[in-house]
Automatic annotation (TrEMBL):
Listed Pfam families: MerR
Record bears the keyword Cytoplasm: no
Native organism: Phaeobacter porticola
Regions that span the bilayer: none
Coiled coil region boundaries: 74-101
PANTHER family cross-referenced by the UniProt entry: HTH-TYPE TRANSCRIPTIONAL REGULATOR ADHR, REDOX-CYCLING DRUG-SENSING TRANSCRIPTIONAL ACTIVATOR SOXR
GO MF annotations, alphabetized: DNA binding; DNA-binding transcription factor activity
UniProt keyword terms in alphabetical order: Coiled coil, DNA-binding
Domain HTH merR-type: 1-58
Record protein name field: Putative transcriptional regulator, MerR family
UniProt cross-references to InterPro entries, sorted A to Z: DNA-bd_dom_put_sf, MerR-type_HTH_dom, MerR_fam
PROSITE patterns: HTH_MERR_1, HTH_MERR_2
Superkingdom of origin organism: Bacteria
């Protein structure tokens, strides 16, 4: 896949993909005879995973650290698992907070519905 294909498939810009390569989030791809990047389709799953980590608030430095550990192979399995377990706990707390916030919003909306009904009845 060319870099433009990866950009289109992931929604990332070409500049972002080059930046990810520069900081070590994605491995440098092979190059064709003209020196253009040629990505394996497997990169799409990896970029999707990185996006999910980003969406859940994992800092870029931690994503880079994870990517570097991943590049080292099986010797880092435990460390990567521990990173994901810690981040999973962060996500769990975020979900709990969002659930509590949603319940508060539901109560507030119900109050406004009641107040509007009272105003209309007067």
């Amino acid at each position: 896949m060319k870099i433009s294909d990866v950009a289109m498939a992931t929604g990332l810009s070409v500049d972002t993909l080059r930046f990810y390569e520069k900081i070590g989030l994605i491995d440098p791809p092979a190059r064709d005879a003209a020196g253009r990047r040629v990505y394996d389709r497997d990169i799409l799953g990896w970029i999707r995973f990185l996006g999910q980590l980003n969406a859940t608030g994992m800092k870029q430095a931690d994503r880079v650290r994870y990517a570097r550990l991943r590049a080292k192979g099986r010797e880092t399995l435990a460390e990567r698992r521990e990173m994901l377990e810690a981040h999973r706990e962060v996500i769990r707390r975020q979900l709990e907070q969002l659930h509590d916030t949603l319940a508060l919003m539901d109560r507030k909306v119900a109050i406004y519905h009641d107040l509007e009904k009272e105003s209309a009845d007067v």
